Amino acid sequence: MDEIQKELLIQVADLHEVPQGAYNLRVNGQGAGRNTTEHIDIVTKTDKPGIDIIVKPGTKNESIHIPVVLSQSGLTELVYNDFFIGEDSDVTIVAGCGIHNGGSDKSEHDGIHSFFIGKNAKVKYVEKHYGSGDGSGERILNPQTIIHIDEGGYMEMDTVQIKGVDSTIRTTQATLEDKATLVIKEKIMTHGKQYAKTDFEVNLNGEDCGANVISRSVAKEDSHQIFLSKINGNNKCYGHTECDAILMDRGSVSAIPEITANHLEASLIHEAAIGKIAGEEITKLMTLGLTEAEAEAQIVNGFLK
Fold first, then answer.
1. Three-state SS string across the chain, please?
2. Is 102:135 a contact under the CB 8 Å cutoff?
3. How far apart are CA 279 and CA 297, in angstroms?
4. Locate the SUF system FeS cluster assembly SufBD core domain: which residues (predicted)?
5. 11-57 pLDDT, tens digit each
6. How far apart are the C-alpha atoms of 227 and 149, rounded to whole Å?
7. Are 1 and 27 in contact (CB under 8 A)?
8. What is the dihedral of CA 177, 181, 187, 193, to 10 degrees?
9. Angle at Cα 240 formed by Cα 171 and Cα 188, nearest 5°?
10. How many distinct structural domains can be found in the chain?
11. Which of 145, 44, 143, 53 has its CA nearest to residue 91?
């Protein structure tokens, strides 16, 4: 990999060298390295672009890295990655995509990830998106995540987009069985004329299952964001969705939560708060010696931390 590709890999997966454990690296639409372990297999699909990640039942404390890097201007791709997580497993999966576009043509990566999380399995999934390059071509990322959590399963999904992505539509659909849990934490910052839309739909089908969907975002300059969150309580369950957003300059955010209780013992909550940074917060930090710009940056960093 060249220096640009290495930097993208650091930004999206915190990788400074070849990772330990199972991994699959994809660079400019091609496989660039793979490793499997005794308990985790990675298989190339034969009917469409993408891979199957197969975690054996009972696998504990192992990690899987599957970052994607695009540095070729004008490249567009669609990949399908399926994750089969065996019963009683406990693994961490680090994904993410970085695009460097120094040309005039758009570069786009669309990924469809399907998770099949077995009974009592636990997954932490980390996904970062990042863009760089001074070309006029757009950097576009459209991830779609489909999640099915079996009885007693748990998934924590952390998604981050901080810089450089011109347009993104992020779609997540989840179905939970008895005593399953889903936690989603999303952080987004947009600037310039960037556009970001997130669309969550969680179906709480199992008894005593629960979901917590939290989004924090900052919209700067002329950027626009849309947050859609729909939770359906179809059994005795708990669901919570929350959107907190900071507006700066001429940025705008639309938050549209929807909760539907289809069972007498479904307990659902939605919260949303959008506004500018409070003037007294900036003033307080400026009394400590920070400039106004430094005070704003510190507040934003703390908000998205």
1. CCHHHHHHHHHHHCCCCCCCCEEEEEECCEEEEEECCCCEEEEECCCCCEEEEEECCCCEEEEEECCEEECCCCCEEEEEEEEEECCCCEEEEECCEEEECCCCCCEEEEEEEEEEECCCCEEEEEEEEEEECCCCCCEEEEEEEEEEECCCCEEEEEEEEEECCCEEEEEEEEEECCCCEEEEEEEEEECCCCEEEEEEEEEECCCCEEEEEEEEEEECCCCEEEEEEEEEECCCEEEEEEEEEEECCCCEEEEEEEEEECCCCEEEEEEEEEECCCHHHHHHHHCCCCCHHHHHHHHHHHHHC
2. yes
3. 14
4. 85-303
5. 888 878 778 899 999 999 999 899 999 999 999 999 999 999 999 99
6. 23
7. yes
8. 10
9. 45
10. 1
11. 53
Instruction: Report the relative pairing of strands 30-35 and 50-55 from DSSP bridges.
Output: unpaired
How many C-beta atoms lie closer than 10 Å to residue 293's C-beta? 9
Measured over all CA atoms, what is the biggest interatomic distance in the chain, rounded to whole angstroms? 62
Name the average pLDDT for the chain: 94
Is 90 exceeded by the pLDDT of residue 84?
Answer: yes
Whether the CB-CB separation of 246 and 273 falls below 8 Å is answered with no
Q: What is the pLDDT of residue 19?
A: 82
The amino acid sitting at 304 is L
Q: Which two tokens stand for residue 303?
A: 């908000």
Quick one: how far is CA 250 from the chain centroid?
Answer: 25
What residues does 247 pair with on adjacent strands?
A: 219
For residues 241 and 224, what is the distance between their CA atoms, to the nearest angstrom?
20
**Residue 135, domain member (yes or no):** yes
Strand partners, 33: 25
Residue 290 lies in a domain: no
Asked whether residue 304 is assigned to any structural domain, the reply reads no
pLDDT at 162 over 80: no
Alpha-carbon span 259 to 278, nearest angstrom: 30
- Domain span holding position 54: 3-278
Residue 1: the pLDDT is 80
Query: How many angstroms separate the CA atoms of 20 and 65, rounded?
Result: 9
